[in-house]
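Re: duplicated header lines in exported structure tokens

Our pipeline writes sequence and tokens for each protein into one text file. With two proteins the header for the second block appears twice in some exports. Here is an export where it did not happen, for reference. First protein block:
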Amino acid sequence: MLARVTSRPGARCVLPILAPLVVACVLLLGACGFLAKQREVEQRSTQGPTAQQMFNLRMLTQNGREPSFEERRQWDEQIEQRIGAYLREHPEKANALDVSTFRFLRQSAVGMDKDQILILLDAPMAVSLDQNHMQQLARRYWPAIQGNATEVWIYPLGWNLFFAGPRLVDITQYVAPPK
């Protein structure tokens, strides 16, 4: 049943009051979204980038587009073969508690060795053995990392993977805010 709208004498229309309020809310939300994009990222973590993230980033930078379904399928088969071969060669790793992070999540994590990281993320953009360079990359986390790390592998998106010999011992990420 439809209701009839009638205007009563002395009744005020809510629309002139409501419209500026809605506009103010939309502007406030837009400003919050803009400021959220402007902040820096600085973190220390036990888990780093995933193989999927690095693959997608490589495809974007090399081809200017995301991978197609077929490219994704081929990459998935290749990485699954490489992970399977690694686990067959290292049966002690196949029975480790964190094997699911490597095999199924395909995510770099503290405790992995260099071969596992190379399988997941491919070669780094740069490698450094210089303690001063490592201190710059570790930023405020250097006191906790210092003395443990002998080498750092640098990946895109600000990811820095610190190794002590063959073992990944720390992960940091720093992304400066856009200027």
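Second protein block, exported in the same file:
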Amino acid sequence: MLPVVAMVLSVAGLCVPPMLLITLGLGLYGYLRGRRDAKWALRKQVTQMTMAVSGAGIIIFLGLGLPNFKRYQMRTRQLECRETLSELHAAQQKFYAREKRYTTKLPELLPAPQRGEVLLRLAPEGALWTGGLPTAEQVGQGFDEAKYPQLSTRAVDEALPKLVVHELGIKGDCPACSVTMLCATNLDGDAMVDVWTVSTIERLGDRGEHIAGGLPWNEIDDVSE
């Protein structure tokens, strides 16, 4: 009776994937017992079919689910750039309220900046902090390449779109000025990078979108492209 029930459940498991693990175990149990018990041997073919259906179902769902899981992980990593730019914008607003100007010097915004999986650029030109202690001449930071050797500060910085980079930094004469900042990373190891920007003023996107000041904007989506 058990082999038949397991077979029916394996078919039903195609609609309820977690059940396939149970039916695969039941099928394997029935198959092994059928090799020792003559009564179970009569239903050996049923247990083999149960294992085949369950195994095939698991392979199919893994094939469908793994790419979606990887995409979910990449979307989660995208949030780091968005959140980092929100923090930088808030820090710029506090700095402006105190100094009546904006800054492209990362140490002036963040007392203890830490490098990780994102690259930050506050001006179109200038060195990035890649090791040691940050200095006043540096206009952003690179990756922690010791911890994330798959990420190259130089490669990602060189891959940034020139038109986007051109818009970075302080525009106008302070106090009537604005600043635009960039965050980038490589989510999947290919040549394309994921690029976000934020500005203290409203601006237009490349398709004419109105982007509010303080809103992190995804210039290049490395997940969808």
